[in-house]
Design a protein that fits this description.
heterotrimer, A alpha/beta (384), B mainly alpha (502), C mainly alpha (327), B: 502 residues, mainly alpha, C: MetI-like fold, ATP hydrolysis activity (chain A), ATP-binding (chain A), Oligopep_ABC_C (chain A), transport (chain A), Peptide/nickel transport system ATP-binding protein (chain A)
Chain lengths: 384, 502, 327
Amino acid sequence: MTTPNVPIEPRKGDAHTYDVPPTVLDASGEVHVGLTLDAVRPPSEEEILRVDNLTVEFPTEDGVVRAVRGVSYSLREREVLGIVGESGSGKSVSSLAVMGLLPKNARVRGQILFRGDDMLKMSPRKQRGLRGRKIAMVFQDPMTALNPVHTIGDQLAEAVLAHELMPRKTALARAREMLDLVGIPQAESRLRSYPHEFSGGMRQRAMIAMAVINNPDIIIADEPTTALDVTVQAQILEKLLEVKDAVNAAIVLITHDLGVIAGMAHRVLVMYAGRPVEIGDTDPVFEEPRMPYTAGLLGSIPSLENSGTRLRPIKGTPPSLINLPTGCPFSPRCPLADDKCRTAEPELTETDSGGHFAACHHWDRLAAVEDPTVFFRTESETMA
Amino acid sequence: MIVFIARRLVISFFVLLAATFIIFVLTALSGDPLEDLRQDNSPNKDLKIADRVDRMQLDVPIPIRYLGWLGRLVRGELGVNRDGQDVAPLLGHALSATLQLVLVATVMAIIVGIVIGIVSSLRQYSGFDYSVTFAAFICFSLPIFWIAVMLKQYMAIEFNNWLKDPGIPPTVIGVLALLGGLIFGALTAGDRRRRLIAFAVGAAITGALFTLLSVTHWFADPGFGLPLIVAISAAAAVGFTVLSAGLRQRGPLYAALGATLVGALASQVLGPLLANPTWLEILGFALVTVAICVGLGYGLGGIQRRQAITASVLTGLFTGALIFVDRMLQAFNSYSQAVRGRPISTIGARTPNFVGDFWQTNLDSAGHLLLPSMALILVSLATYTRYSRASMLEVMNQDYVRTARAKGLPERSVVVKHAFRNGLIPVTTLMAFDFAGVIGGAVVTENVFGWQGMGNLFIKGLKEVDPAPVMAFFIVTGTAIVVFNMIADILYAYLDPRIRLS
Amino acid sequence: MTLNAQASVPDTASDSQGMAIVARTQGQMVRRRFFRHRAALAGMILFGFVIILAFSSIGFAGIPGWWGKNYLDTGALTNQGRPTLSLIPEFLGGTGLHLGEHPFGQDDIGIDYFALTMRGAQQSITIAFVVGIVATFFGTIVGAVAGYFRGRLEAVLMRLTDVMITIPVLIIAAVVGRMMGDSGALVLGLFLGLVTWPTLSRLVRGEFLSLREKEFVEAARAIGTPPRRIIFRHILPNTIGVIIVSATLGIASAVLLESALSFLGLGIKPPDTSLGQLISEYRSAMVVRPWLFWWPGMFIIVIALSINFIGDGLRDAFDPRQTRVRA
């Protein structure tokens, strides 16, 4: 999937006009995802973001919460990188760190290089100049992410005016174009609406419009569809891909939905208890997971292929980030865990060529079986 | 919106009506209205009793009496008290003094309280925040009458004595400097070194200021003078510009500084007009100021026209207020001599038979208002501070504030545009509650400071089991509370579009 | 997240996994947070001390106390009634730590001022607690019923609340005080409580309005739980934090309300006394005999302040949203 089959001509023309493909409804009335990853322009080789050994800690009354422990990844121009994990795995915190939006008490270490500049060492003013202009963010809950007392137009125009001096009218005109781009009808009059007059899907579209209004290089989307109706989710994701193509941005897509990753990301990073446990191109990771946690995740989602067979959930809950177990943090829930796992935390190692890394002492055991989810067999299955 | 207000008005009217019934009945039941006469030993005792029974209709059931009172009220009569005096003229004298006191205290408490609360929330867990929190708790726990008696003793009597020879002893200057340093230090964010520097600078500035004031005997004949007015106003111009537009573009700054310049010129040119103006003229000046400043902002604002207008209007009004205060201070010396060197008054709402020009009479009311409003303000001030602090802290943690930061807005815009307005919404509901509390406090304060105000009317009426004055008091205060609630509601709807449309 | 009553069952699931999540019950967490609040703890100790001092020194309800004098006996003035209390130790040039004959001095007819102040504190504390309990009871009932049932009943109750709120508390309390001031602390407290409930009832109603839409109430209704049980067993336990905090702060303001009434001469009547009445009586003594003014004032402030601190601690304990996290 990393090498797209359909070459696409770069669009030409006025930088401020974007042509919008119509949303296609199939015969059954369901939303047909018209735009796929294969149809958008491929990533270039140029690296725009490199996160190196990022750690984030929060001191609390009960002890230090080690939310992110040594995350490294890189992002190429126009690439879509998916970050998956359960809640509390550090996926949101690590991306908030990239945005510089962590609370003041957070202790951040490591490097976040945007086109070679370390954002953690930048002056606050320079960092602010990147925020919203070069790196934009779409948040999880569009119900609360928009300010209820200002109009949509104001909030969009403000994003432009924060970085560029221009008359308000010009900024509002730009906002209107963006609402058009994300498919909000009657954009002109909608500029004067307040967020509570929008539906959830519309608000998320407005959020996306706000994110791309300054033609950013990177869009960080933090579970952009979790708070939305299932029927709207596909539309929003498609819209995200479409605007990404329009403004030539890369996307960091944070989600716990593996299905979304499969359809939308070039590469995927799996996180568990604040650490990356597996990273690689999406297809190889999903077809041949090298970390039992990834395998467990894959086994716990229903799909058409394995309909009829039982789901194989991962037992237990993620560990507390204040008091991590020694060894591999997944070992208490892992069917492959042995004494080694409970004493030594595995490092990320390259398991396959093509940049597939996993952090597991027993990745070769996963490689040896055809269906790695088999280790998560439920009791009834074992008995049968 | 009009429907919304009208609906509220109708409901409020009936609520107020029901409240008058409760107060009337309770007052009538609260004691024996003939108590003093029963112990009377004069020969015409029975006649007096019969007379009062007749006048107060003590022989008819209370609800009928209430209806009688209500009937007279509809005709615009407030009835007579038990001695046969008409209540309306009694109320007339009391009304303006009390409303003045209550309004001054409320407005001051709202403005100062919100500002302190916001600063305190933005500096959460700083020395300033802890001090404000602690001070607020002290204020919540102070009995208002106790503080009023204390103020009367220390702020009035001893301050007036001190004014006879207003030099400040070096030790006091030292303490004041220390305090100034502590405030500067506590307000500064950053590491220990920065805070120490801020402390030193603050202490030095405060110390120097008070030494200067002491040496020049400033308090004997206070005033700002043109250079100081220009300096303060220019500083305010920069401040308002930073808050509204930032300093990236020069336009708004020039507009605000222009307002300073116009203000300074006006204070010189308009000298004769300001010798003895009326309030109407002052209002006129304020309107002209706004008009000129809007023009300045429009002309010089460039692409940040809106923000420039805000900055210059605020600067203009601030400068105007500064000139006003300066004029008042200039009248201080002559006024002080006119009241035999006791400008801070402890009794009443104005000096009896005092005649003076506009500035002197206003100084006279200000001198009388100062201490009662200080006593009255403390509790409200603490309430507004705590409430707006909590509200701002909550708002600053909202997702939309994070969104605003994610857009790359400067922290100033995040606070002023996104947090402030949302933070004010719950504060408006507090206004309605607090105002009723201030009226209760005013009754106590008036008692301590010997005002012949509404509170006195109420207490006297209540002690004599005489509904007419009590009801007169309640009609006025109840209406004031309803009006204030209405203002709070309208403000709420203005701030929160979700309410406006439903 | 709702603080569901059922959530007080310790979550043992994570323990069995051998993981390091320590499960705590709701009550344990509230207690832990409260005792970490230093001001609240100090307030509690101080308030406890004042209660013990006030009620044990001169005795209460017929039980004699350890302080030899009472608040009614007059006596000869010694040293113009100056306080004999000395807190400055000898090595600092004072006369050493001792109480003396009249630690707080004497009033103008020679009554021991310590005994008077203690009596005043007793009265003020009693009234404040009665007001707090009565107002909390009625406020909770009215708020709960209005919030749960909605419809006409809510409209009637809330209009009643509106009417009561339109009248400033001090005004209605003054009228009640005029009526009941002679009947003693308990009755006065009871009647003051009957006019100060509306604030709490509004709060409780607000909580009920949002909680009644929650899934667990829906579930209870679905299995046919009677309304009374839903109100008291399902919703009320979730509002207990709001109620306790509000009741505590209500007690603090009742202390101030009572003292203001007595100050205006509309509360406790002589020869019995209260802290506010003492201040009112000796307000003009400020210059010549300031102790007559200072002692009752200090006691009001200490009582109100310590209860306010306790209330703040409880608020933090019940509402951990603003949990202190420090860098």
